[in-house]
Write a structure and sequence with these properties.
Elements (H helix, E strand, L loop, with lengths): L1 H22 L1 H22 L6 H21 L8 H14 L5 H32 L7 H12 L13 H11 L1 H4 L2 H19 L4 H6 L1 H14 L1 H12 L24 H23 L7 H5 L20
Length: 318
């Protein structure tokens, strides 16, 4: 899951970077760092970091606005000081240059990334539970019962006689009582995994959300450009007028964004993650009764006598 997710994340980041390199060349170099930070924040969020999707997305647009304003809306600006840049960042929150596109991006990503974050945490919890119960601590009474079951017949020279199934089950259930108590919680855990994987395949589709980031950013930038004169008037009142070259430069380096066709990388990553989800939940559903049936599993092999009319019941051959 993590490998497929990382592949999707790299694809989405590269696709977003290529948007600036092909459509918004004047700001491509400076936009590289905010893009990288955005996808780093998304990755950290899914892995359980104490952050939010909203803070990551809005921080990205805060960093993006000074670039859009000085490179696309007013490409003649020559002096973009730290104070002026900071003023633009703060102004972004008030004048909302990107319209509803920034909030829509928060909404879409929050749904899909939440499900992925929960699944990632659930997988970590499952590993912890399995590792904790890998070695069951045997009580003294359990150890005595196991020895009696397996070796007492040897004292009578009965080395080929194995325990009876019922006897084996009684001993094992006594030994594994603490493990079987996990049954209800484990069943609930499997149900939760099933719910999360279904959510990820439905309205919370991670692949579609990540692949759509570049489109949301592009729409947001186009919206800001269309409202350039109003934005400039507001910014001038709040931040003052920056230095400009004689005659405002045209944004000739901005090229229309064409529809980008889906590339094989995304298709492969999408299929890989979808298949992993299906295979994983199918496998996990088969383990729904695992902790309730450990004793049955242990008494279902070579440990007991199944095809003979005689077996050891703890006291004698019956």
């Amino acid at each position: 899951f993590l490998e497929a997710f990382e592949s999707l994340l790299r694809f989405a980041e590269n696709r977003t970077s290529s948007l600036f390199e092909t459509a918004y060349r004047p700001m491509a170099k400076e936009a590289a760092e905010p893009v990288k930070e955005l996808f780093t924040d998304i990755s950290l969020y899914i892995l359980g970091a104490e952050t939010t999707v909203e803070s990551a997305v809005l921080r990205f647009f805060d960093s993006l606005f000074p670039l859009v304003y000085s490179r696309l809306i007013n490409p003649g600006i020559t002096d973009l000081s730290e104070d002026y840049t900071e003023c633009l960042r703060l102004t972004r929150q008030d004048i909302n240059p990107f319209g509803h596109y920034s909030k829509n991006m928060v909404t879409e990503l929050s749904k899909s990334l939440w499900a992925s974050r929960m699944l990632s945490q659930a997988l970590s919890l499952g590993i912890e539970v399995i590792n904790t119960t890998e070695h069951a601590a045997l009580t003294k009474e359990c150890s005595r019962a196991l020895v009696k079951m397996q070796y007492c017949p040897h004292c009578q020279g009965l080395t080929l006689i194995r325990p009876c199934v019922g006897y084996c089950l009684n001993v094992m259930r006594g030994c594994l009582a603490s493990v079987s108590e996990l049954d209800a919680q484990w069943r609930e855990y499997i149900s939760t995994l099933e719910y999360l994987t279904n959510e990820m395949a439905a309205s919370h589709d991670l692949e579609i959300a990540l692949a759509g980031i570049w489109s949301s950013i592009n729409e947001a930038i186009l919206h800001a450009q269309l409202n350039g004169p109003q934005l400039s008037a507001t910014v001038d009142k709040v931040c003052g007028q920056p230095k400009q070259q004689e005659g405002n430069l045209s944004s000739a380096n901005v090229v229309p964004v064409k529809a980008v066709t889906e590339v094989p990388t995304f298709v492969m990553a999408h299929a890989s993650l979808s298949n992993k989800r299906r295979e994983f939940i199918s496998y996990m559903k088969r383990s729904r009764t695992f902790y309730a049936s450990v004793a049955e599993r242990l008494c279902d092999g070579d440990l007991v006598m199944r095809d003979s009319s005689t077996c050891w019941n703890g006291e004698d051959v019956v």
